[in-house]
Amino acid sequence: MHKVAAAAGVSPMTVSNTFRYPARVQEETRQRVREIAAKLGYIPNHAAGNLASGQSRVIGAVIPSIKNSSFYKYVRGMQDTASEQGYELVLKLADTLEQETAAIQTFLGLRVAGIALVGDQHEDVAIDLMRKTGVPVVESWVHDNPFDLAVGYSTVAATRAMVDLLLDAGRERIGFIGYAGAVSHRFTERVPAFQERLVAKGLRSDLLYLVDEADGFGAGPKALEGLCKLDPKLDAVLCPTDIVAAGVLFECGRRGWKVPDRLAIAGWGDYEIASETTPGLTTLQPHAYEMGQESMNMIIKRVAGKKPRGKVVDTGFHIVKRASV
Amino acid sequence: MHKVAAAAGVSPMTVSNTFRYPARVQEETRQRVREIAAKLGYIPNHAAGNLASGQSRVIGAVIPSIKNSSFYKYVRGMQDTASEQGYELVLKLADTLEQETAAIQTFLGLRVAGIALVGDQHEDVAIDLMRKTGVPVVESWVHDNPFDLAVGYSTVAATRAMVDLLLDAGRERIGFIGYAGAVSHRFTERVPAFQERLVAKGLRSDLLYLVDEADGFGAGPKALEGLCKLDPKLDAVLCPTDIVAAGVLFECGRRGWKVPDRLAIAGWGDYEIASETTPGLTTLQPHAYEMGQESMNMIIKRVAGKKPRGKVVDTGFHIVKRASV
DNA sequence: TCAGATAATTGTAGCGCTACAAATCCTGTT
DNA sequence: AACAGGATTTGTAGCGCTACAATTATCTGA
């Protein structure tokens, strides 16, 4: 900074202002400083700025997995919104709670302005740390009991809507594929919501099968086999993700089963593959992009002191009807 | 830090050493400091440490897209390797060169220890900045002309291998699906490599079709239609990604074409879907995880001054044979 | 017991930047 | 010409931490 200042014949403070508060600096001066900075390859040191001002324009997001497209739109929404408002989004991947905690610690060490998390299950250490440091935190894909801020949709309402859709289609032996590794309400909440509807209609509500991973195609065939053992006349399945649904669909192809005549298949997440299979997959669209946008908006407003703690935003969902149901 | 020091009855320097150089501090003291730090929710301020030491344990990676699984293993490889060696990996998404430049600027502002990029096409501004600041930079998925460090495999050799595979399978009217938005050698290099083999055999080498996006299923049907217009007797296609290949496969299903009898389909990337379709997709496995590992190793060695500039590592590839060819 | 060596701890200074207050420069008035 | 009042610019101090040198504690063997 000093070199730039010297080269431009101004004080270091003017250089600082040029980048932080351009309005404070005269057009002409600003231009000159910018030019010289560019020529010298000068980039303001965020770390030092952060230290001096106690503020940061960096927001950290912890993402469970990029193995599939489920979080793509969510991340895009965050990225777009953050950069629109002059913030920077950096990502860390974490597939387990331990990794999430490590990621949170890294972000805390970086003194980010805020943290975006997925889900409401976190290690105690992490919760403790976030509480003690007081960083703004937004949890997404969840609907209630926010740690600080939350944005999501109601999994329960969505599950009910999906089951109703299958019932309306005249299905009576509906199977449910769950995610065994689920530490999150996002997955576990679905079971009771699923059963409640069937019980009300006097139908079997015990056609449940848990798979190890929610993102693999391979889970589909396994689950279908498991469910068929419980009821060979199974006529519909509700899947945890479109990937699993596609796996089931491929398996139906191998078995020569017509979809949806022999089996109706409902997916979840509106992944790209849902629109590309034949038949297309009926699925639940979780408004991921909007969730990403809103999560950044909440964090940024919180940084500005405009949002109270404990705030929840419901971004809703809608069902995309295709031929598989 | 001072609060922790006071609470533990030691000097701030001892607290600093406890975290940075545990070996320098007596077991007993270290333990006490750690406990009190945990109780107080103290996390060392990376920004300040970075500033004081002029060093950083954070490495930034710019990733083109998380829309599909193509980069999943690559990121995992980076993440695992970085954390094994005590570094932190943070990610930024960038789908365009402008976004990449912005991401690089952010990382530079954060004063990261190194930067990992995908491909060898970058904006001049970005190149200039990286050169002037002298950060270690590793480009991956590319094989030559490194800006600093590079790790990848030979797209040319891989294309040749794929074409040979189709020729060995007795195909004579082979179509090539390319990626129109390709700014990178990764995609453009393939065309001449593709043609060279066919010309040598005296076969048509003009069955080319460019699609807008390499990651969408939808590109498959479009490309197939385009290629069939050029040659209705097309008997094989080489796709830019498994996603496109799956799109072609689905389209064959709609048309009632048997794969590989009527049309052989070769994918690229060994995405998960390649093993789950029926028939399975023959594809090219780019050793992405190893690429991620090696890219971090190179950066970290470079930080330690052990690697010279201009170093390239070839992580190779191999062909996964399945039923589609 | 004590010099001499090693281990453990501790001040000091300063990393690059920004908040804040103070100083300087302009303009248009009177 | 003098001056109020705003626009610009500029010192000063300090953010939280670490390199480095200096200090103090502890141990060794004769």
Q: How would you explain this protein's 3D organization?
A:
The structure is a homodimer of 325-residue chains. The mean pLDDT of chain A is 89. In chain A, 46% of the residues lie in helices and 16% in strands. In chain A, the strands form three sheets. In chain A, strands 2-1-3-4-5-11 form a six-stranded parallel sheet, with helices on both faces. A four-stranded parallel sheet of chain A has the order 7-6-8-9, sandwiched between helices. The first copy, chain A, is elongated and about 85 Å long. Chain A is α/β, with parallel strands linked by helices and 325 residues long. Chain A folds into three domains: 43 residues, 434 Repressor (Amino-terminal Domain) (Orthogonal Bundle); 126 residues, Rossmann fold; 131 residues, Rossmann fold, CATH 3.40.50.2300. In chain A, helix 7 links the parallel strand 3 and strand 4. The interface between A and B is large, with 55 and 55 residues. Chain A binds a DNA duplex (30 and 30 nucleotides) through helix 2 and helix 4.
Largest interchain contact: A-B, 55 and 55 residues
Portion of residues in beta strands of chain A equals 15-25%
Structural class determined from secondary elements of chain A: alpha/beta
Query: How would you state the average pLDDT of chain A, rounded?
Result: 89
CATH topology of the largest domain in chain A: Rossmann fold
How far the N terminus sits from the C terminus of chain A, by CA atoms, comes to: 63 Å
CATH homologous superfamily designation of the largest domain in chain A? Response regulator
Low-confidence stretches of chain A: none
**Secondary structure: number of strands of chain A:** 12
**CATH class membership of the largest domain in chain A:** Alpha Beta
Task: Give a short account of the largest sheet of chain A.
Answer: 6 strands, parallel
What proportion of the residues of chain A is helical, as a percent range? 40-55%
> Helix-strand pattern of chain A, N to C?
HHHHEHEHEHEEHEHHEHEHEHEHEE
